Amino acid sequence: MSGTVLITGCNRGLGLEFAYQYARDGWRVHACARDLVRAEDLLALEARFPEQVQLHTLDVNKDGQIKALDRVLGDETIDLLINNAGYYGPKGVCFGKVERELWRQVLETNTLSPLMLTQALYPRIATSKLKTVAFLSSKVGSISDNQSGGGYYYRSSKTALNQVVKSLSIDLEGAAIKVVALHPGWVQTDMGGENALITPEESVTSLRGLLQQLDMEQSGRFLNYDGTVIDW
Ligand SMILES: NC(=O)c1ccc[n+]([C@@H]2O[C@H](COP(=O)([O-])OP(=O)(O)OC[C@H]3O[C@@H](n4cnc5c(N)ncnc54)[C@H](OP(=O)(O)O)[C@@H]3O)[C@@H](O)[C@H]2O)c1
């Protein structure tokens, strides 16, 4: 099975691995990053798969860039949208040190922008064959899993994202669009750090397997990369 995928945050980490694996397997890949000039690995991927990979400048927080992307896509449909771009914000911020503006930036990137992009690209997804929207969430956004407190910026942004995913899955059910929140595992990327448990290759291979088998029954779920359901 192949189709057209659009992925945000493709210059490094999980986004780069998603772009690579889909291109390798014959998909058409719209790979977005906010600074293409400095995206060496992504430029190398485009050079390796020139027929399949198309690069786009996209800071997900900029509505003008979302509009420009939509224009450039012409009449293409998008089978699979992967809202991957994410921002942890400053680490180790404990109660008493929370700053409004820093919190706002994390919410903007992780919660608001994925929905704004999905809304802008919706007609392309609705008219595609596979009709799937994936959101990279995180287990630390699970309220029932929160045993250690803290992490105000990132945790709250992913918890709110999960609520967005749930609503969207209900709203898009009539259009037969599958919508899921995915936890990629603790992955060795800049965000996950070097002590993380799995490689981007392992995570993305599993996530792609899940996405390939996804049906409407699973729409609206919060899924771990191994396919198990995570409690909200
Ligand atoms: N790694 C883990 O263990 C882990 C665990 C749970 C969930 N996740 C989630 O998985 C996703 C990918 O994480 P990762 O580990 O690959 O993180 P990463 O290595 O920190 O990469 C983050 C990516 O998001 C991009 N990004 C950030 N803000 C952006 C913006 N405003 N516009 C466009 N792109 C932006 C970054 O681009 P720049 O280079 O321009 O900053 C980068 O490409 C995130 O949503 C993250 O929350 C990761």
Automatic annotation (TrEMBL):
Cited Pfam families: adh_short
Lineage: Bacteria, Pseudomonadati, Pseudomonadota, Gammaproteobacteria, Oceanospirillales
TM region(s), chain numbering: none
Protein name: SDR family oxidoreductase
